Amino acid sequence: MSEAVIEFRDFSFRYRAQKEPTIKNINLTINKGEKVLIVGPSGSGKSTLAHCLNGLVPFAFPGEITGEYLINGQNPEDLGIFGLNKMIGTVLQDTDGQFIGLTVAEDIAFALENDCVEQAELFKRVEEAAELVSVKDLLHNSPRELSGGQKQRVSMAGVMVDDVDILLFDEPLANLDPATGKRAIALIDEIHERRKSTIIIIEHRLEDVLYRDVDRIILINDGMIVGDMTPDELLATDLLIKNGIREPLYLAAIRHSGAKISAEQKPQHIESMKLDDISEAVKEWFHEVDIPEEPVSDEVQLEVENLSFSYTSKKKVLSDISFKINKGEMLSIVGKNGAGKSTLANLICGFLEPEHGKILFNGTDLSTWSIKEHGEHIGYVMQNPNQMISKPMIFDEVALGLVVRGVPEDEIKSRVYNVLKICGLYQFRNWPVSALSFGQKKRLTIASILVLDPEIIILDEPTAGQDYKHYTEIMEFLKKLNKESGITIIMITHDMHLMLEYTHRAIVIADGHKLTDDTPAKVLTDEETADKAYLKKTSLYDLALKCGIDEPSEFVERFIWFENQEVRND
Amino acid sequence: MSRVLSYVEKDTWIHRLSGVTKLVFFLLWSITSMVSYDTRVLAVMLVLSVVIFKASKTSWKQVGSVFKFIMFFLCLNVLAIYIFSPEQGVKIYGTKHVLVSLAGNYDLTKEQLFYELNVILKYFTVIPAVLMFIVTTDPSEFAASLNKIGVSYYIGYAVAIALRYIPDVQDDYAKIKRAQEARGIEMSKKAKFMDRVKSIAAIIFPLIFSSMDRIDVVSNAMQLRGFGKNRRRTWYSAKPLKKNDWVALTFTVIFCVGAFIITFINGSRFYNPFV
Fold first, then answer.
1. What is the Cα–Cα distance from A557 to A550, expressed in whole angstroms?
2. Cβ(A434)–Cβ(A381) under 8 Å?
3. Is A140 in contact with A105 (CB distance < 8 Å)?
4. Structure pTM?
5. Most buried residue, A268, A332, A553, A569, by CB count within 10 Å?
6. Distance linking the first and last C-alpha atoms of chain B
7. Do A81 and B223 touch (CB under 8 A)?
8. B175, B214, B225 member nearest A111 (Cβ)
């Protein structure tokens, strides 16, 4: 007999500042020891639901609750946020920001300190918790010295040190590279096995979470539960696509082939999925798809020659990197967090000076150019748009680069309007920046770079933290820009979907060296390269092999081409 | 990249002292230096400051830019004193030895020079103590110390967390600055001073906004882990007072009491070499 730890009955919640409720009439029961995945697009209410569980709603974000909800049989409104903390531990998505202590040990101890646990006891329990997630060797390191994955482990330890029996993970994969994400999911699974905790994961990267079994998926959209079933059942429906969640790539490929997916085939993992008659359909589809050749320019625009760099004399961040980029290319620079890809971008933009080697732009050596001169040819778009926007009004923000260059006023006006049209922001030209959504702000920062007419733009993680809809929106925009104005686009990313779907070439950096320079389909179907670069082999590869297709990378390429055609026709 | 004004772990006897000791030293030292205009006391303090600063093995890189900044204010301060009260020294010491006569009542007197020398001495006795305190005290231990001497842990934690985020904000600053420079906002010395001041706004706004995001995240994270639940809390990083701490505290108290006695024994805060 299972015991309910979380119960919502006809539950709704409306934020004080909003007219409409964000959560509408939810009925949901989660039992002790269950592992539940909550998925939904941005703005679907899934984060609000998480906040209801951990008490940020209504204690930090006030609003109006109707209906009933119980946690461990008690009313959260009576428990207060601190009472809830004792039952539910939350691991937030921002691994950097949630780090409170100055060292790992202090951070893990934080909750206990607030409970006035004596120092000797603190030392003991911190050590135990650190052991659990294997960060014991890092106890005296500062957060800055940790990798993204390690930071997340520390956050988990900081929550588990308190013996909570429900663990809530708010987008645990958001800032991790694919391989680290995979390990995080495995760790969560281990904890689930060992401590028999109830686990709730909130994510939109479905395929990555399903790397390990979950008991149930709850699909949320528009504040309502639109699906509450086992993964196998849900994956057999078209509910995911309808609600803006990307289904696993292998399932998308199977659907393209026209084959039907049913829960009996166990579609949760490609490795164990029963393919039977699907194989033939997929194979047939593979032979039918034919990719037309696309003309590529062979005019070399950017040339990196034997580039090396180090911040301190000891360790080289980049060593002996060479490659050429042609005009009008759209390519990605990939590798795990801290591999040196951002440093490479900083060198190309002139923010840093190379230790050895040189960078040529249209044949000219860039070493004597100032940052400002670099900026006129090679634009750089930061990951976080809030770190770039410095004017309160949209027009002024885009005009900034022209104003400081002393461009005449009417020329500024026409150039800004033109760029705003390209970026789909023209109707907002007289609005304040604060009225824009995150995706629009991203486009605004791109606009403020485009207005300077650069020949290359470099984007740092252009889609980080975006759900499928916004991801597609931003990437389709960039693709159009690349096609129509012939601008070269270089993206720094660890998003495998992005590199696969939107770039024709990937330069893989691992530990400061160039590992490969090949098509993304080849990179992601080569186990060794994928491993070294902390990427993950794509599930399409497994599907291809299982269906008896012996050119998996060709299969991946055809799939991507086919998908892109579909997006365009939508 | 070296970080200005942040705690750096080193192994010296100063680093090993408890935060409470260093805080008490820092407070008493500053008060003494502020109160006393006794040149003899200040001179001794100056020597001790330098010795302690050396002992803390603080490198110039850690504090150089801040030091220059303070020097700038020191010069402003000294000039302002002369401009606004050129006769201050004469008033204090009761005699007037004119060195150079300038326009109006702007005479350059020995007394004024001596008075301003004392002001400069004060700066130099406090600066090493402040810098040393900041770079040798683990911020969380500092918070623990503040709490121990009776300050609410909210305040202690606010300070600690500000220090925790200084490096992050510095990183953000560098990133934003580069991106803005690439857009054409000139930050280097090539630009005119006023233009540079205006350009700073282009960095400050994004910096403030991204820092606000950080505050949001961290305050939620703290609440979710029970911060503010009780009236008191314990500290993982609290260091109990050891023998060396008691020695340092005793010395500090004796020294400061002595300094006060010497300062006030002749009836005023000033040491007068002119009579």
1. 14
2. no
3. yes
4. 0.85
5. A332
6. 54
7. yes
8. B225
